[in-house]
Amino acid sequence: DQQVKQNSPSLSVQEGRISILNCDYTNSMFDYFLWYKKYPAEGPTFLISISSIKDKNEDGRFTVFLNKSAKHLSLHIVPSQPGDSAVYFCAASARGGGADGLTFGKGTHLIIQP
Amino acid sequence: KAGVTQTPRYLIKTRGQQVTLSCSPISGHRSVSWYQQTPGQGLQFLFEYFSETQRNKGNFPGRFSGRQFSNSRSEMNVSTLELGDSALYLCASSGSPAEDYGYTFGSGTRLTVV
């Protein structure tokens, strides 16, 4: 049973527009969420995180929104650039419960079209 | 500063053999986690070590084991290799378990079991 779901395997966005990547989770014990970006043949690179006590966190072009009641989070990239083309993973953990590391979604392949 | 270093980068083993993978965390980081990435299952948590003690363990058989040394370097071992163990094995480090800046991943070891 997948506890973190990224329902869009791929997403194509025009350069300069907004990219919105979505993630849903089922475990109500999750209290910390992260987004990672991955290029082929490299490990995931940390992008941005959000604690469950917040509903928004911004870092430059990247903003993560958390809707706890809907168990949904999203990553907004504005404006999208060609270098943003990569696979994006949503991850969650239950820090308060000391549970099992990070639980990852299966990723969304973002393609930025020129 | 140097990132997370994983060795070797690539490995080919025969079914039934055992393998040891190595991870050197970022200097000063005391928490090391291991993940398995496969096309079908995505990124799955194996285990996490902090100050030489295993804190958490994912849902993997006992053939998968690990340890952490006093210098925070970590090794993971897989015994009696099966074809399904072919995967990218990723190591991640953080200053302490689940810091706000997220985990830093290495580039991984690509294990192929034939």
Characterize the structure shown.
With 114 residues, chain A is mainly β. Helix content of chain A is 0%, strand content 53%. Chain A has no helices and 11 strands. Chain A has strands at residues 4-5, 10-14, 19-25, 32-38, 45-51, 56-59, 62-67, 72-77, 86-93, 103-104, 108-113. In chain A, the strands form 2 sheets. In chain A, strands 2, 4, 5, 9, 10 and 11 form a 6-stranded mixed beta sheet that branches. In chain A, strands 1-3-8-7-6 form a 5-stranded antiparallel beta sheet, with no helix packed on it. In chain A, strand 4 (32-38) and strand 5 form a beta hairpin. The model of chain A has no long low-confidence stretch (mean pLDDT 92). In chain B, the strands form 2 sheets. In chain B, strands 2, 4, 5, 6, 9, 10 and 11 form a 7-stranded mixed beta sheet that branches. Chain B has a 4-stranded antiparallel beta sheet with strand order 1-3-8-7, with no helix packed on it. The relative contact order of chain B is 0.33. With 114 residues, chain B is mainly beta. Chain B is built from no helices and 11 strands.
Radius of gyration of chain A: 14 Å
**Based on the structure, what is the oligomeric state of the protein chains?**
heterodimer
DSSP, total strands of chain B:
11
How many individual β-strands of chain A? 11
Helical content of chain A stands at: under 10%
The total of helices of chain B stands at 0
- What sort of overall outline of chain B do the alpha carbons produce when their principal axes are compared? globular
**What general outline of chain A do the C-alpha atoms trace?**
globular
Largest interface, Cβ cutoff 8 Å = A-B, 25 and 28 residues
Strand content of chain B: over 45%
Secondary-structure element series of chain B: EEEEEEEEEEE
Please compute the radius of gyration of chain B using only Cα atoms. Answer: 13 Å
Mean pLDDT of chain A: 92
Number of helices of chain A: 0
Structural class assignment of chain B: mainly beta
Major beta-sheet overview of chain B: 7 strands, mixed
Q: How far apart are the first and last residues' alpha carbons of chain A, in Å?
A: 37 Å
Mean pLDDT of chain B: 91
State the low-pLDDT regions of chain A, or none: none
The fraction of residues in strands of chain A falls at over 45%
